[in-house]
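Readers of this paper often ask what the protein records in our data store actually look like. Nothing more is needed to write down the fold, since each code stands for a local backbone conformation. Below, we set out a record of this kind in full and without editing:
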Amino acid sequence: MSNLKKKRNDRSSAGYRPLAIAALVASGILQPLLPVLAAGTNAGDTISNTATATYTDDTGTTTFNATSNTVRIVVAPISGLTVKPTGITDKDAGAVEQGDTLEYNFDVKNVGNTTADIFIPKLPELQAAAKNFTVSKVEYFDTTLATPAYVAVPANGIIPGVAAETVVKIRVTGTVATSGVIAGDLISVTLGDAGLNDNSPGTQNLVDVPTTDDAKEVRTAFNPLDPNGVSNPVDNKEASAIQSISFASQVKPQAFSLLEKTVDKPNSDPGASTAGNDDTIAYNLKFSVLNQSPNGGLTPAALEGTPIKVGATAGSAVSTVKILVSDAIPAGTVLKSAPSAVTGWTAVYSTDSVDTTIPVISNSTTPTPLPAAAWSTTAPATPAEFAAVKRIGFIATAVSIAPGTVAPDFKFSVVTSGLPVNGGKVYNIAQAFGTTQGDATKTVVVDESGDASPSNADNTGVPLAYDPANDTGKADPVNQGIDTKGDNSGIGLKGETTEVTITGTIAPANDSIFNGPKNQPTAVGPTDANDDFTNASTAIGAGLSPTANIATAQTGTFTNTVSIPANATNSNIASVTVEPISPTEAEAADGITTTGQYAGTAVIPNGTTVKLTDLTPGTTNLPVTYTYSTSTGRFAITSTAVATVSQATPLNFGSLPVGATRSYTTEVTLPANTVTPLTAIAIPLVAFADDDPTNTAATPSRGFTGESTNNITLDRVYTGYMKLVKEARILSADKSTIIQDWTVGDAAGLLARKAAPGQFIEYRISYQNISTAANGSGNTILNAKNFKLIEDGTGTNAGSTANNWASNTLHQKNTLASQGTVNYFAGASPIAPLTTGLIGTTDPADGDTVGSYQNIVPLVAPASQGTFQFRRVVK
């Protein structure tokens, strides 16, 4: 049997991942909510590592961010087990008396990371551990049956093939002793034998030491092998839980309703145009009343109605008692059509403002609730009536809904007619209202969508009180949080909003000798005077994956200079004009056929704009904007400075004398979601003597058409220019065997091999300044100054939210940096000041708590590179 000599797994508190431990009072009996324990070190979880960095260019005025690929390593198989009490059911629903039939419910969970058989004690052992109770049955809920149901635990006590993270529901049924029991005596059932058996954390996930008393234990019953074929025996685990209720007390009923919302993607529609203001968003609501309680002191009960105002029209609405499922029409949208009929439910509509009303009549007086909305059963029929609807709802025709009932899905659609043409974000949160059958107080039971917690229950399983001042049904993503995956997996109190991102495009309007970098018109590039360059970078946000599209438009700003050189044959140059051209046009103008001289790491995205602004003092030239089209392979002039495109004037300096210089700015804007980090887009800019400068409504300027007097310079915009590549390898516990050699992992960054506790993980980060090196003369390059490589394993800093390696592993010596200095921190790696939590610059001892590392390099020149490497051991 388990006893005080049986040790828990040796692990830090970070390995427990506990839920909040709260007191659950059932008829005066304190029943702690047991923590969820991870077998081993976050058993079965993935250890994730993403490196980040900050740096500046030579100006030192802008901080740039860099993010590496993510490497993920799965912890090798370790068994794990917890047992949690989930409530007592008195079959006659009254006070607990002699001879009453009670059902004690438990959740037995496999918290390991691989399938396991689970052993459940048989009747004699359960009876021996019971108090004032005669056990008659022990059953488990078999989900493999065509119709899942409770069935007897097999004769050998083994429930086979329980998948990782799966809960097996156990029910122990019996009767209260018929003699020798007085008021206040405990009627108890203990499932398992883990020593003290007091529901404390020390009763969960214990290493099972085989003894003659194994028949009393709830334990795993297997010894798996690593799926990679490496023998990896693991200890079996055991756990226990106890539930008690006082004789002559009564179990409290509670209705547990669950409302879940998803976007019905097959029935959503992007609309007839590319704009974001004609899209259809289809929502699907799933509503059920649960027959299982998340709290040992509450037993599932039926859901009844709560007062709402309903009528054929809003003006005829009167108070009636109904179960209501409600959803506010999201801001920026209108109801598209009346929903299809749902058996047993009636669709209702409210035109009352979401800001000034709540869906139901609340019995709460503190805080003072808003007025209740008036609901109409008459569906809107005209566009104006659809636009007037502020909430849609469904009311049950039944007086009550029994536990275990799942309602048909509720579906409705909205149109994003109130959004800008380029789209936006749409938020909403659904609510379900009722009361608990038999509750004399008629306390409102409400559940909000976005998570899997019924009746807005907190971490103890106790429903939170309805707060009509704040639970209005109006979406508030800041305070309510967001169901980020859109699958009701939100975490937090009450519900989380559903977020839908709508993208749209605005059709661009129809349709700008030495030309070079700022004050360097005679600059020479790597090849000739036609590919000199100015490099500049945008400042993307921290934490963006190097393979993810950048969701916001990126703008790089340049200054260029045109000059008319003095030579023996030169004279005034007429109608000097500057405009952007495509790389293909640049090759043709330069008389070359080899591609690549004028290209970046990516082709110019469709919709890229180039805005040219004359910097000549006193100029009358208006800024002119060009937009690139991949269909034509050209830039076309557009302008917002004048009424029509035909009135737009190219950037024309007029006739320039020998020796004259003119400067202009170039703003290159890459559209949202068209480029990834570490992209370089080269924009060739040609200065030429325009032989057809006439610009009229009938004949707008044709611009550059191969004029022989021309010179090209490149403005190259980078979306960050420090590349980080993360690799990892796994070493055996004695460091003699390479289990997994250096790799970036698969497409998702996952290593093929797993790392078991005691084995070593080595991480290596290679960094490189990918910008063009200083070839030629007069070019503007991009140094990376004050480069700060950050390995934050706490997930605290922006850009490292996926990192969890600090809690799963311990520092080991042999940190290596090819250049610069290394700072070690106990916790998160701060951006500034560097001394916050600083351990020092000396490699700490094995096992010391190191939560993050910084490798600081004063300057990384274009095309230069380096590495940083550190070692961890899996707890």
Notes: Residues 1-40, 223-233, 506-512, 696-700 have pLDDT under 50 and may be disordered. The first strand starts at residue 23 and ends at 26. Helices lie at 123-129, 383-388, 477-480, 583-590, 805-808.
